[in-house]
Amino acid sequence: MKAMQSIYDFTLTQLEEMLGELGQKPYRAKQIYAWLYRKRAESFEEMTDLPAGLITQLSERYVIMPVTLVDKQVARDGTAKYLFEMQDGMTVETVLMHFSFGKSVCVSSQVGCNMGCTFCASGLLKKQRDLTAGEMTAQIMYIQKELDAEGSRVDNIVIMGTGEPFDNYDNVLDFCRTVNSDHGLAIGARHITISTCGIVPKINAFAKERFQYNLAISLHAPNDELRRKLMPVDRAYPLDQLMQALREYSTDNHRRITFEYILLKGVNDSDHDAVELADLIRGMNAYVNLIPYNEVDENEYRTTDDRTALHFYDVLMKHGVKATLRTKHGEDIDAACGQLRARHERAGKA
Q1: In this structure, is the dihedral angle defined by the CA atoms of residues 251, 253, 109 and 260, taken in order, positive or negative?
Q2: Measured between alpha carbons, how far is 295 from 280 in angstroms, rounded to an integer?
Q3: How many whole angstroms from its chain centre is CA 281?
Q4: Cα dihedral angle (166, 167, 169, 171), rounded to 10 degrees?
Q5: Domain shared by 52 and 118, yes or no
Q6: pLDDT at position 125, please?
Q7: Which of 48, 63, 78 is the last residue of a domain?
Q8: Number of domains in the chain
Q9: In whole numbers, what is the pLDDT of the chain averaged over residues?
């Protein structure tokens, strides 16, 4: 069966343009958005204030939900990992996490990943394609419909799942526009975080657009020598280029940057590493989010123990750099990005 484009693919402006091509009035776009994002419609036939002819046109050209659930794991702490299958049979992961400040969903932006970070389960399966804006939106909408049953909602979105968001720049930003729109899910821009491993030209482009979305940088090392061992992207965009782009972004946009730093036992968690990291970012409008490592069977990296992690945090703070130490989530399930998908892929080939 031929895959059909999802109506979730369209930003409000794009939907108005598409309806114009169908001979419809632009105001119909807001009606459709209300059915999709407020009333959570699952079929075009539910959209009772649309003309019958338009419902037929939409039904013949588009689907609403372009993903189906293949697997779901729920940890003791309530963290839920979803494995979704798309119309072409490819799969992606999404994670729902519960925090004191609300419910946060981690969204994937690509099928597989080509960045090659040595510690990351996402890179176990190389990039096969980008996700469309609608396939990213569908990840949120599926979970939101589950949360509707308990009277709650998605409070925060982080684009930190499988894939490099800035390697799928246009689709990621269209997705952000839709979930941020007052006519969409109305999730505030400052509750949406885009994480990149450091593609400098896209950071520069992002800076010029003056978005209010949060920017997070997957750093994970305080110097080029170590970072190149962990993250091949550093060969293309070394730290001096990356930090210059980030300083310009922060100055021009008056926005705070988050540096993500996964603590790897005996690799990047020494006192010297902490001091070097503090020297790298001191003076910037930024903070470091220290992240416990979710171990992956396919590599040798191990999680830094709690005592060492807390000491690393203390060294940063004493050297004038603000930091947070993230609590562990989903330890008893396939918590690492790409881990559940990789397991299913292996099982399918067995």
Answers
A1: positive
A2: 27
A3: 24
A4: -130
A5: no
A6: 79
A7: 63
A8: 2
A9: 93
Q: What predicted TM-score, i.e. pTM, was given to this entire model?
A: 0.92
46 and 94, same domain (yes or no): no
Annotated catalytic residue within 42, 60, 93, 113: 93
Closest among 155, 160, 209 to 185, alpha carbons compared: 155
CA gap 139, 94 in Å, rounded: 7
Below-70 pLDDT ranges, the chain: 1, 123, 329-350
197 is annotated as an active-site residue: no
Q: What is the CATH number of the domain that holds 339?
A: 3.20.20.70
Are 59 and 71 part of one and the same domain? no
Please check whether residues 278 and 136 belong to one and the same domain: yes
**326 secondary structure, DSSP code:** P
Query: Which residue in the list 21, 209, 337, 345 is annotated as catalytic?
Result: 337
Interstrand relation of 91-99 and 80-86 (parallel, antiparallel or unpaired): antiparallel
Same domain? 86 vs 17: no
Give pLDDT tens digits for 309-340.
999 999 999 999 999 998 876 665 555 555 56
Catalytic (active site) residue 45: no
- How far is 95 from 78, CA to CA, in rounded Å? 11
Residue 194 shares a structural domain with residue 232: yes
Residues of the domain holding 56: 5-63
